[in-house]
Amino acid sequence: MSLRRVGILLAKELFKAPKSFIVVWAIVAPVIISLVLSLVFGTLLTEQPRLGIADAGSSELVIRARNTAAIAVREYGSVSALRQAVASGSVDMGIVLPADFDILVRQGEQTTVTTFIWGESLAKSRTVVGVALVNLVREIAGQEPPLEIENITLGDEMGIPWNDRLLPLVVLMAVFLGGMFLPATSIINEKEKGTLTALLVTPTTAEDVFMAKGLVGVGL
Predict the structure, then answer these.
(1) What pLDDT sits at residue 67?
(2) Is the pTM of this model over 0.70?
(3) How many other CB atoms are found less than 10 A from the CB of residue 58?
């Protein structure tokens, strides 16, 4: 094996590599697979933010919330059931309404409500639910109510979407497979065109050819 001949062949392979479909595939594949993962795991086309409500009375807020297109509403019969639903991720946020909630907000009295927040919920979902709640309470009160909200976060506070977790692995797999396929496809193409046979008639050996093509694959 001659290092000089390997170097010449390597330079030739590096010149041709950017034109290879395999190189393009190694660059484009992670992007395409990332979009597919986003669709599969719901981070690209996310569902409606989910609000859970434990109503001790018969608040008008429940009816109004159900008629709001921006959020999906689920009712729970107790605070413990609501808390469990939030902790398990069944809803993004849960709110506990006292029995006299509507009366208090209409009278403009200081009202305190407790909300449970799923720690792994998306920031966008929390914002949508929070804004929707404030608007609904304002509609019921007919004014800006002195509402105090006590937030309790349940579960892990740092939720990483699955597509973000898998993206590094996807990129590595695409590059690794590209590095494996590039030398193989290059050898097949040269064999089909007859250039490989012509090359081996010269002092260049098969080891020189395989080494140069292998180095290109490793470099990719």
Answers:
(1) 92
(2) no
(3) 11
